[in-house]
Amino acid sequence: MKIRFTLLADAANISQEGKLNILGEFNAIRATAYPMMWGGFVYVASMEVGAAEIGAQVDLDLRLVDADGGLLAPPLPVHLTISQVGNAPELEGEMENHPIIISISQLTIPQAGKYSFDLWREGSQVDTCGFYAVLVR
User: Fold this and answer.
1) Rounded Cα–Cα distance for residues 106 and 122 (Å)
2) Cα(97)–Cα(82) distance, rounded to whole angstroms?
3) What is the pLDDT along the chain (137 residues), one digit of tens a residue?
4) Rounded Cα distance, 82 and 133, in Å
5) Which of 74, 27, 22 is nearest to 46 (CA)?
6) How many other CB atoms are there within 10 angstroms of residue 20's CB atom?
7) For the whole model, what pTM was predicted?
8) What is the edge-to-edge ordering of all strands in the sheet holding 20-26?
9) 20 bridge partner residues
């Protein structure tokens, strides 16, 4: 398993064909005052998996951290079974994209600054998706 990319967006879905559709990708939120309650959005990851990994159980943790690495909320456990995506035939011996979409709502951001959603697997960080909280005057 290899992470191809991660991002934050307003919405995302997976088509019948296994295509990942993303709407409104962003890397900054803006507010006139902090702390602020952030409404709904999605964390999107695309993993590359081999045919031998189809059917495997994968346990991940998604962690929201500040610029100093401090946790802002308890880690969100993500339990996946790697499945064939869409109607595409299994790619024997080839790598296949496997999208992950996690809906997040009602998240409190304490102050303007740099933050990230860090993805962990088996005690090791496998990816980071940074974003900025900006104070608008």
Assistant:
1) 27
2) 10
3) 889 999 999 999 999 888 899 999 999 999 999 999 998 999 999 998 877 777 889 899 999 999 999 999 999 999 988 876 554 555 555 677 889 999 999 999 999 999 999 999 999 999 999 999 999 99
4) 33
5) 22
6) 19
7) 0.88
8) 20-26, 2-14, 41-50, 95-104
9) 14
Which residue type is seen at 34? Y
Give the type of residue at 105.
Answer: S
Q: Which residue has the tokens 């709502």?
A: 105
What are the residues facing 98 on neighbouring strands? Answer: 47
Residue with tokens 């496998």: 126
CB 20 within 8 A of CB 97: yes
What is the distance between the alpha carbons of residues 58 and 60, in angstroms, rounded to a whole number? Answer: 6
Q: Counting every residue, how long is the chain?
A: 137
Q: What residues contact 114, with CB distance under 8 A and at least 6 apart? A: 66, 67, 130, 131, 132, 133
Structure tokens at 81: 């079974």
Residue 70 in tokens: 């401090």
